[in-house]
Design brief:
With about 250 residues, this protein is of the alpha/beta class. The protein is built from nine helices and eight strands.
Length: about 250
C-alpha cells in the first residue's frame, strides 16, 4: 500500500549516508588530520576498505603488480555496502583507473593526478602544472598517461628528504616527525619551482601530503591542489547542495 504522503524510503544497501568509498593501502604509519586515511579529515562521512597486501612499498615501488583483482574485489565490497563512487589512497593507483571503473559500474577517481588537466586549463598562457610526488623515480609514463597527465610535466619527489619517503614507503617505523615530513614536501615543491619557474600551480600526487599543502602554498606562492581538493569536488557531485532559499525567490 502506498503512503498517503508519498514519502517512501528506498532500500537495497547496507549503509546509508556515506556515498564515497575509499580504498586504503595496508600501512601502519600515523595518519594525521589531513591525511586521506584519517576520518576526521573529511567534512562528510566516507566508507573505508583496507586492501590487504597492498603496502606502500608494493604499490609505489613495485607498480602494484598482481594487486588489481584485490582492488576490484574491495571496490565491489564498498559498492555493495552503499558507496556510489570510489577513490583510492594512493596516486600511483592511476594504473587501475580504467579497470576499476569498468569493474564496479560507479564513478571512480583513483588518483589526485587526475586534476592536472583541470588545473592546466585554468592557468594563464605560458604557465604549467607541476607535480610533487612521494617518489619521482617510481612515477612512470604509464602512471601519468592513465591520469591524463602530459608526459613532459615537471615533477619533483621526496626521496631525498629525511622523513616523508623513509617512513611512508620503506616503513622503517610506526611514528614520524611531522615537522620533518612537512619540510620534505616543502623542499621538494621549492626545488620544483626553482628548476621550472613556469610552474604556475602544483598538484600533490601523494594522499598523505594534504597536511602540508598550506605550508607549501606559503613557501612557493602558487596554488596547491591535492587529494583533499579532488575528493571534495567529487563528493560535491554525489551530494549537491540544496539551496532552500530558491523557494523564496
Amino acid at each position: 500500500m502506498n503512503s498517503p504522503s508519498g514519502r517512501i524510503a528506498r532500500g537495497g544497501k547496507s549503509i546509508y549516508g556515506a556515498p564515497l568509498g575509499i580504498l586504503m593501502l595496508e600501512a601502519r604509519f600515523p595518519r594525521i588530520p589531513g591525511d586521506m586515511g584519517n576520518g576526521e579529515t573529511w567534512p562528510f562521512p566516507v566508507l573505508f576498505r583496507v586492501v590487504r597486501g597492498a603496502t606502500p612499498e608494493r604499490v609505489v615501488l613495485r607498480g602494484a603488480r598482481g594487486l588489481l583483482p584485490d582492488f576490484i574485489a574491495a571496490a565491489r565490497e564498498l559498492v555493495d555496502l552503499g558507496a556510489e563512487a570510489i577513490t583510492t589512497n594512493c596516486g600511483f593507483l592511476s594504473l587501475f583507473q580504467r579497470e576499476l571503473a569498468e569493474a564496479v559500474g560507479v564513478p571512480v577517481a583513483t588518483s589526485s593526478l587526475m586534476q592536472v588537466p583541470w588545473v592546466q586549463a585554468m592557468l594563464p598562457p605560458g604557465q604549467r602544472v607541476g607535480v610533487v610526488t612521494v617518489s619521482k623515480a617510481s612515477l612512470t609514463e604509464a602512471h601519468l598517461a592513465a591520469a591524463g597527465v602530459p608526459l613532459d610535466t615537471p615533477i619533483a619527489g621526496t626521496e631525498g628528504g629525511r622523513e616523508f619517503f623513509r617512513v611512508l614507503i620503506t616503513a622503517e617505523k610506526d611514528d614520524f616527525d611531522i615537522d620533518l615530513a612537512e619540510r620534505d614536501v616543502v623542499e621538494a615543491g621549492r626545488a620544483l619551482v626553482e628548476a621550472h619557474p613556469e610552474v604556475g600551480a602544483i598538484v600533490l600526487e601523494c594522499t598523505n601530503m594534504p597536511p602540508y599543502a598550506a605550508a607549501l602554498r606559503a613557501e612557493v606562492g602558487r596554488p596547491v591542489y591535492d587529494i583533499y581538493s579532488m575528493v571534495s569536488w567529487f563528493q560535491a557531485g554525489l551530494r549537491p547542495r540544496r539551496f532552500n532559499s530558491l523557494n523564496r525567490v
